Structure formats: structure tokens, C-alpha cells
Amino acid sequence: MKKYQSLQSIQTAIQSQQATLEEVVTHYLGNINQYNNKLHVFVEVYREEALEKAKALDKKYQTAPKSVGKLFGLVISIKDVLSHKDHIVSASSKMLEKFTAVYNATAVERLLAEDAIIIGRTNCDEFAMGSTNETSYFGVTRNAADPDRAPGGSSGGAAVSVQANMCLAALGSDTGGSVRQPAAWCGVIGLKPTYGRISRHGLLAYASSFDQIGIFTNSLEDAAQILEVTAGHDEFDATVASIPVPNYSNSLDIKKGKAKIAYFESTLNGEGLDQDIHASTSKVIERLKAAGHEVEAVPFEYLDYLVPTYYVLTTAEASSNLSRYDGVRYGHRAENVNNLKELYQKSRTEGFGKEVKKRIMLGTFVLSVGYYDAYYTKAQQVRRLLSERTKAIFEQYDFILMPTTPNVAPKIGESEKDPIATYLADIYTVFANLIGAPAISLPIQNVNNESLPIGIQFIGKDFEEAQLLSFSKEIEQLL
Ligand code: GLN
Q: In the chain, what's the furthest Cα-to-Cα distance?
């Protein structure tokens, strides 16, 4: 099966008249037709719209090749938490099953302005809460590497849309790993930029001080280009950094000197780490050392606090964010109710799934008067300590390396049996969200077992995505 590896290869094919954009879109729609029933990646496919747009862009290109945008040729999917004007955005929840976005998320707006084609919206865990895509109201997405296994979450559909060649790239969101973890389990690249690099305007909120839009691709070049287009100042999101957006694509091939890389001993030698991941990550470290990079273990005493801190803070923020779904202003509204309180109760009872309810209740609990200091304040203090410790590490090192996940993709149904273990498995990804730093998951070879994908993660300094991407390029060449 033909697989375009990068936007460049699509643009070259169009320039040399080997393909039209319409044919490229048809190619992806063909793959969707073939696999979507089985893998359940898209909640909605914009067939007609994508084809119409491709035809119009082909015409525009033929008339004046220079008039098309930078992302001409990019066929991309968006996670079902990103607002896309006049299209449904449901957070894969019954609560918003019929909710139509009235404006574009800034990231979506910028993709469209550069002539990208959005091919559909992808399935995800309900309100992006989950690690396996099993909490979606629409049912689970399957991993194309083994359809009995989970794709990861919460951006599971996004990851598989790229893995199964249903589009070239995908936008997802990453609050605690939702881009990097499914990328690792599906064998694609997953980039979570620094908190505040890409505007969150139009991204349905889960935990606002953690949420960040992220990118799935097959190539680092595409990740760089999509970041370049979507990042940067936005008057609709006050938390977006106004730091100028570098030309990430140009910095990819700049040869840097030798890097200094830190890792935390226990992330590699902890009991819970899968054997294949341990072996495969160790091999990468050997290669890095052989290539002259310094890779050193550094002490890090806070590892056990990452997951609890993450879940206290994100559930607290979620309980506040999701209070807007009251059956009055947005989304599902219960019928046959006698008073306002009953309307709230019944609408939420019917509209939210089990995992979302669990988190709202947990978040309400940690914010309650009697427990606020014991949980919420404490977790904020730990978050501060993590930032300070990491800052000190980054004074001496360029990157922090760790496995993206402690485990490979589990069988569907497994994670429900032990929800605590599922939360704990977020240990390596939540770190970057707690400190806000940019992080990338790169697919690496599974040294023992060819079939199940594995990812390695590099965390960089705030707003140094250019360095992170160009170092990733070096690793790609090294491996
Ligand atoms: N698995 C994590 C959670 O359930 C991360 C989710 C995310 O990044 N959206 O909270």
C-alpha cells in the first residue's frame, strides 16, 4: 500500500503531476473506507467536504501555484475536542453528542488558513480522560498493530489515523500524555509543545493549566511545519506565550554539538518497566553514548509523587471546567424534570460517563473546604518543587530522556480490571505537563518483539522545541 511519509512527498507528487490533491484525499478516504469499521478511528469523516475542498485547491494551484498555503497537500484529522466551526465537537461524550462548534479553534483556523484539509474528527476518551480510549461514549478505537489491543489515550483515534495511513497527520491534545502515549503505542511521532506554545482557544477544556494541543506525524519535518503554523500569540488565549515562533523546519538539519542528556535511574530500573521497553531504551542510550553524547543518570527523588500530584490537580481543574455542562447552556438536557436541581442532576447523570463522573467527584472532594489544604495546596507545592528541581537539571543538561510508557499497548478490557495501575502507568508522561516543558515521543525499534511499537521520550527546556526537534532528527538518523 502506498504511504506518503511526509507533506514534502505529497507536494512533490502534486508538483510533478503524479497526483492531484483530489487523488491524495481519495487515497486516504479509501483507507478510511477499508479500515474504519474495524479500527473505529473516526467519529465522523468529512468525505464530501474534503473532496470538494481538494478540487478547489487543485484549481487554485493549477491557476497560480504560488497562491496556495504552506500546508497545501496536508490531509489531517482533528481530535474530537477541537472546535471546528459548523461541525460537531463532542469530546466523545453523550453530553455533547449533538453540539456544533460556532467558531474554529485557533489551531484549526491556522491550519485551514494554510490550506490544510481536515478529513474528519477522531475518537478519544470522554473529555480526554483516559489512557486507552475505552472511556469514549462511542466505543473503543483499536490499535492497527494488533486490533485486540488499545491504541492508547486519550487521543487514540488521532494516533491510529496516522498509524493506519488514514491521513498524513493528526492534531490531538495532551494533558498528561494523551499525545505521546498513544504515539508510542502506535509507532508514530507525538509532540507535546511547551504549555502556552499553541493557543488553547477552542480546545474543550479538561485541566486548563495542563492542556496543550499536540501533533502526530510520521516525520519530524511535518511536526515542525505544523507547529510553525499553529504556534504563537493569540488574542483569544491569555496563557499563550508571545515569544516569537522560530522557523522549526529550518532548524531541523542544523548540526548541533554533542548533547548532554539526563535520565532518572528509577525510570529505567524500576520494577514495573516492561522488559522490551527496558532493553530497547537501553540500546538507544548505548547508541547515543557511542555517538559521543553524554548520557548520565541523575538523582530525582520525586518520581513517586508525579501521578498523585497530577491526578489531584487535574481532577480539581476538571471539576471546575466541567461545571459548565449543566443541561442549560450546553449539551445534553434531561427531560421530564420538576425543578432546576433535578435538571442539573439528571442532565449530568445521563450525559457523563463513569470515568468523567469519578473525576468530577474526586476533584470536588480535593477542593472541598476541609480537604483543600491537605490535597490541592499540597499538590500545588509539589508541582512547584518539580519545576525547581527540573530547572536545576536543565542548568546542566540539554534533555531528559525516559521511556514514554512503562508498558506496551494492553489488550482491550485489561485496564478496566485495575484502574489504579492504569493511572500509575501515566508516570512518565505526566511529568512534562506538570512542569510545562515540551516533550516528544519517538518510535524506536522493539528489540525483542517486532510487532508491538515502543516509544522513547525526550523532554526539553521551555520553548526550545527547535532544539528538541533537531535533536530528534539526529536520533532518527542514529537509529
Ligand atoms: N491518561 C491521562 C489521564 O487520563 C492523560 C489524559 C490526557 O492527556 N488528556 O488523565
A: 72
How far away, in angstroms, is 429 Cα from ligand 1 center? 9
Nearest to 117 by CA among 174, 63, 68: 68
The count of residues in the chain is: 479
- Which CATH code for domain 1-479? 3.90.1300.10
> Residues with catalytic annotation?
79, 154, 178
What is the grid cell recorded at 345?
442532576
* pLDDT single digits (tens) 85-143: 999 999 999 999 999 999 999 999 999 999 999 999 999 999 999 999 999 999 999 99
User: CA-CA distance, 477 to 411, in Å (whole number)?
Assistant: 32
What pLDDT shows up at residue 101?
Answer: 98
Q: Measured from the CA of 175, which atom of ligand 1 is nearest?
A: 8
| pLDDT greater than 80 at residue 394 | yes
Model pLDDT for residues 184-193, shown as the tens digit of each residue: 999 999 999 9
**pTM (predicted TM-score):** 0.97
129 lines ligand 1 (CB under 6 A): yes
Where do we find the cell 484502574? Answer: 419
Is the pLDDT confidence value at 234 over 80? yes
Ligand 1 within 6 A of CB of 154 = yes
CA 74 – CA 70 distance, rounded (Å): 9
Which atom of ligand 1 is nearest the CA belonging to 129?
4
pLDDT over 70, % of the chain: 99
Which helix or strand (DSSP H or E) is residue 412 part of? none
Cβ-contact 404, 455 below 8 angstroms: yes
Helices (H) and strands (E) in the chain, counts: 19, 11
The answer for residues whose C-beta is within 8 angstroms of residue 142's C-beta and 6 or more apart is 38, 39, 40, 148, 149, 150, 151, 160, 412
- 175 Cβ inside 6 Å of ligand 1: yes
Measured distance CA(251)–CA(238) in Å, rounded: 28
Quote the crossing angle between the two packed helices 378-396 and 306-321, to the nearest 10°: 120
Q: Which three cell numbers stand for residue 122?
A: 477522531
What tens digit of pLDDT does each residue of 343-361 get?
999 999 999 999 999 999 9
| 3-state DSSP assignment of residue 78 | strand
Q: Identify which of 329, 361, 321, 359 has the alpha carbon closest to the alpha carbon of residue 347.
A: 329
